[in-house]
Design brief:
Layout (H helix, E strand, L loop, with lengths): L1 H15 L24 H62 L5 H44 L1
Helix pairs in contact: 2-3
Length: 152
């Protein structure tokens, strides 16, 4: 009789085992997933909760990235405002050096100074343009991330 009891107990364990069990660390939280022949009533409810929390986590991540992008853009805007205040100073220095280089008694030093100040002005304008572009890209990305989060 013990052999038949062991055989019967093994059959009962096999009947309780479900091949469609989700792993413990999955987004469905170890719930039974619906198989080819199962009803899946409890599994659908458990799967919906996992998907909702996953969407909420992704939405929070997207909104956090958008916030970080806006903060970085704000820092660049502060730097841009300071750079734009310096632009007239650079332009005036370049104009003064160019005028000095055009005079009849201009030396090589005057011409080199004019070239150097013009180069500084060009670099300064390029820096300002770069800051404006970076701010635009960051704010555009932030808007796209917020729109993507709204779709979740």
């Amino acid at each position: 009789m013990p052999d038949s009891w062991a055989a019967h107990s093994g059959v009962r364990d096999m009947q309780r085992f479900n091949l469609n069990h989700s792993p413990a660390g999955s987004s469905t939280g170890g719930e039974f997933s619906s198989g080819s022949g199962g009803g899946g009533g409890a599994a659908a409810a458990g799967g919906g909760k996992g998907a909702a929390s996953s969407n909420a986590a992704k939405k929070a991540q997207l909104l956090a990235q958008a916030k970080a992008d806006r903060a970085q853009a704000h820092q660049l805007e502060i730097e841009l405002q300071a750079a734009q205040k310096q632009t007239p100073k650079h332009a005036a220095a370049a104009k003064k050096a160019a005028t000095a280089a055009k005079t009849a008694h201009a030396t090589t030093t005057h011409k080199k100074t004019a070239t150097t100040t013009h180069r500084k002005l060009s670099k300064h304008k390029a820096h300002v343009a770069h800051l404006q572009h970076e701010i635009h890209v960051l704010l555009t990305d932030a808007r796209a991330l917020v729109a993507q989060a709204a779709k979740l």
